[in-house]
Amino acid sequence: MHVPDGFIDAPVSVATGVVAAGAVAVSLRGARRELDERTAPLAGLVAAFIFAVQMLNFPVAAGTSGHLLGGALAAILVGPYTGVLCVSVVLLMQGVLFADGGLTALGVNITDMAVVTTVVAYAIFRTIVKLAPHRRRTVTVASFVAALISVPAAAIAFTAIYALGGTADVSIGKVFTAMVGVHVLIGIGEAAITALTVGAVVAVRPDLVYGARGVTARPLEIRDSPLAPAAPGAVARAEAPAAEPAAAEPTTAEPTVATSRTPEPAAAPRRSARHVWWAGLAAALLCAGVVSFYASASPDGLEKVAHDKGIDQKAEDHAAKDSPLADYGVKDISDARISGGLAGVIGVGATLAVGSGVFIVVRRRRATAESGRV
Question: With the CA atoms of 344, 58, 79 and 12 taken in that order, what torsion angle do they form, in degrees rounded to the nearest 10?
Fold first, then answer.
């Protein structure tokens, strides 16, 4: 759903740019509350992973494909404010390095693909987890529903923006019907990718999933329940009173102290997120460097609608069309597989570096503010 230059007129592009800048500024402040020393590097990885998976267009209808938008995934994994920043970093890197999404339309794309998807998805996600039982499965189901709805919501938002500043003389009703219709189908793919990714992380490290905080804690407490199987040492202690007293200790008997079968919970040690980080990076590199070669070559939902309705006739040349990585290929490398895979790997690395840098700076500013208050 990357809007190119020329689809939206200058006044509305400027207005959405102001909205996008304001949203990013608010998100930079809000992200300070969401990020800590472990999740700041993971937020950069989330941005890189979204970049990689967006390269995997999947077919949704005859001659049409779709790809991940990522707002729901980012919001659930690292928080809504940080999620807006993650998708914004991805869109910036795609526009500057790969000529994907217009530079004058960057405000439109951030408003639509970063802000709208993240806000809508996280609002739906939180509503579901508050009303449903507090279980790990609830997080996965809520992720699916939130991602599913966020995509047509972005299509509606684009239609509203186009109604205000569209440059082609096209019926808004036709644009609305076509955009929402195809993006409902794309939303199914978005929901599947989001739910699978969130479910995988929740299964191994629920403490690293922002949306799972306070949701997965209750099921984990079953370990301290009296109904839980006792440890081998506890069984031995429980059977000890039935044994005959030792002959060597006939005179001194210390008073028996009744102890609860539920031990006092010890403070859980902070686990490193290093293994999750490396696994996520490997998955991103695999998607961008290898799997992307097998992605659908059909136009995505917006491209298809724009072509069918004649909107694409207003498209302008991209300012970065001569970039050595334009169109997700490395210039002067003739082999399509090598060119595309290398471009994807470079994109993952660049997005990871920029995203991690942003989030580490945000985290340090929070630490500095906290130390100043002390």
Answer: 90
